[in-house]
Amino acid sequence: MVATVVRRRVVIISASVGAGHDGAAAQWARRLRELGFEVDVYDFLVVLGRVLGVGMRDVYETVLHRAPSIYSVIFRLTTLPVGAALLARNLLAPFLPRLLDLFPPDTAAVVTTYPMAGQLIGKLRRRGLLTVPAFTFLTDFSVHRLCVAPGVDAHYVLHPVSAAQARALGATNVTVTGPLVADRFHPAGAAERRAARERFGLPADGRLALLVAGSWGVGDVERTAREIAATGVAVPVVVCGRNTALRERLADAAVGFPLGWVDDMPELMRAVDVLVENAGGLTSLEAMASGLPVASYRPIPGHGRTNAAALAQAGVSSWIRSPAALATTLAELVDGPRSRRQRAAGLALFENDPMAVALPAIDAAHPLAADRRAGGTVLGTRRRLGGRGGPAWERWARRAAVAAVTAAVVGWNATIGTQIAVAHGLDAARPGERREVSVIVHVSPQTRLDAATVLRLRDERAAVAIDTRFLDLRPDSARTLAGSGLTLVNAGGGQPYETGIVGGRSAIRRAAVRLRREGGRSPRYFLSDGDLDAVDLGIVTYLHEIVVRPSRSVDGGSVMPPLQQGEIVLVECAQQPDCGLATTFAGLDRQTAGQEIRVGSLSEPAT
Q1: Is 506 left (phi over 0), alpha (psi -120 to 50) or beta?
Q2: Pairing, β 154-157 against β 318-320
Q3: Per-residue buried b or exposed e for 171-193, using 16+ beta carbons within 10 Å of the residue's own CB
Q4: In which residue ranges of the chain is CATH 3.20.20.370 found?
């Protein structure tokens, strides 16, 4: 009998945020144990403690359920080049000793499936306090800036698309390993399909679309289920996870087949014909391993949208961007050339074994430093990490420095960082096509808005900006403009378009509410001079508006200056009752006549 050779220990750090990180960690642990390693798996949220760790998870879940627009703002702000990773490392620095204590003397390597843990593990490697290789396994197709951890020995990613994104963010030693999922996820034959449908009480015939929304059941799942059912292409089978309220609503409305928490996802995937998801997480990879075509539809903000884009770019999923395309795309995915191409691309992800990359790196590892093996480093480590060792004044000085850096980064991101992000397209509008210019006319209470003026605005495809003063003095004209089909822009409190701390911010919401009440529809855009902070952007996002930041401003009646493609021009109607639109638009027409540049309407930002 040949004894199993124990190849020392690998410590895996995951996080119980949703199910994706834990799912990936479980598969790494399974494969490493099969190869003879001792494996310890820890939850990073436990390292952070009950208040911070569990509280962070609860806040994250609450925001995704109740205020996804706020999560979108936070997600986009943390993609800024400066501050996000530094802020994370500074905020979590006090937990470095607790993290280091998880690594016993026989540790050969450390693997993390959670980006925030990767930031701290990289910091331990850079300081020389962790002397064995550390790898971060990125569980999503899209790569966020926080996923890039300076100091780790390698970033393991799922696909070349992910690798390119990681390298663009400065990641070093990026290696495409492909995903890891449980062995039970595999393509099913006809007999397995019939047995699976019988087990879950699903019809033996007909097309079924498996709709998933993560373990928390977040996103616009109910509307998606209704829209899938309305196509007639497939009947939705909805996995509501732990969202019992969602399951009850779907059951009461008799929409498809709503399920709660499913313990046997491999069997359920053998019963269906296509997967529809909104976050691009672990379930998408499991579906690809099962030979199912995957569609992203109504992705949640933040990582849901970036994953949808990355999956589509890799050719392993179809991003359905509008309800009008839902029926056609589902039909193509259920059966047809698109289905075959996408199934093949998804199965190809699993041709390589991530262990073939990780194992040589782990086997080449040397043990932890001798002083750790001797068990005499707890005090020394904490001194070097700013823990309980050392004089009190040193500890307080370090804490004050961390607090100052943190405050500076938060302040920068919330103010200057937000302005830069908006200037570079964060939730900001632009002309509908690259060769177009767009025009916004900011009407004043003195502006004459007869039928001829409204018709001219429509002919020029101009948007109309309305502020609170106009709404207070001329509500009837606001109703007329809203009913004319013109694109309305929320101008808040009007010039100089400052949001301020109190009055300006309340004007954003007040103008939106009044426009909806007077005109019967909410404005799609918010007019700004670009002087926005994170609170302003959060309010605008909550109202489902898009920031419009004009590239130049002219007075109505003045000669239109030479324009360039892609500009947004604001026409201010403060001087003349007719706003001088005839003169202004005549100059605009002369510039666009016979040239490549043309006037177009506003469009929403690319996602």
Answers
A1: alpha
A2: unpaired
A3: beebebbbbbbeeebbebeeeeb
A4: 427-603
Q: Percent of the chain scored above 90 by pLDDT?
A: 32
Residue 455 has pLDDT above 50, yes or no: yes
Statement: residue 348 has pLDDT above 60: yes
Give the tens place of pLDDT for each residue, 163-176: 999 999 889 899 99
The long-range contacts involving 293-298, CB below 8 angstroms and separated by at least 24 positions, are 293/318, 293/333, 293/334, 293/338, 293/339, 293/342, 293/343, 293/346, 294/318, 294/342, 294/346, 295/319, 295/320, 295/329, 295/330, 295/333, 296/320, 297/224, 297/326, 298/219, 298/220, 298/223, 298/224
**CATH 3.40.50.2000 segments of the chain:** 190-348
Cα–Cα distances in Å, from 361 out to 27, 110, 134, 409?
18, 11, 10, 36
pLDDT recorded at residue 537? 72
Residue 375: the pLDDT is 42
Tell me how crowded residue 470 is: count the other CB atoms within 10 A of its CB. Answer: 25
1 falls in which pLDDT band (50, 70, 90)? very low
pTM beyond 0.90, yes or no: no
The residues, any chain, with a CB within 8 Å of residue 10's CB and separated by 6 or more, are 32, 37, 38, 39, 40, 107, 108, 109, 110, 111, 362
**Cβ 323 vs Cβ 229: under 8 Å:** no
Average pLDDT score over the chain: 81
For the chain, how far is it from start to end, CA to CA, in angstroms?
59
Q: Give the residue from 234, 253, 248 showing the smallest Cα distance to 292.
A: 234
The pair of three-digit structure tokens given for residue 111, joined into one six-digit string = 């693997």
More confident residue, 413 or 34: 34
Residue closest to 466 by CA, chosen among 448, 485, 439, 493: 493
CATH topology of domain 190-348: Rossmann fold (3.40.50)
Q: Report the 10 Å Cβ neighbour count for 535.
A: 15
Q: For helices 534-542 and 503-519, what crossing angle results, to 10°?
A: 10
Element (H, E) at 156: strand 154-157
Q: Which H or E element spans position 274? A: strand 274-277
pLDDT at 312: 93
Residue 383, pLDDT above cutoff 50: no
32: which 2 tokens?
Answer: 């490493």
Residues 544-557 have pLDDT tens digits of 788 888 888 888 88
Mean pLDDT of 134-146: 90
- For domain 427-603, the CATH architecture is Alpha-Beta Barrel (3.20)
CATH of domain 9-178+355-373: 3.40.50
Phi, psi of 576 (to 5 degrees): -105, 145
Q: Crossing angle for the helix pair 115-126 and 84-92, nearest 10 degrees?
A: 80
Amino acid at 85: A
Q: Tell me the C-alpha distance between 152 and 121, whole Å.
A: 7
Nearest 5 degrees, angle CA 69-CA 74-CA 78? 145
* Largest pairwise CA distance in the chain: 98
Render pLDDT for 511-529 as a digit per residue (tens, 0 to 9). 888 888 887 778 888 888 8
Q: For residues 391 and 8, what is the distance between their CA atoms, to the nearest angstrom?
A: 37
Which tokens belong to 115? 């980006």
CB distance 545 to 524 below 8 Å: yes
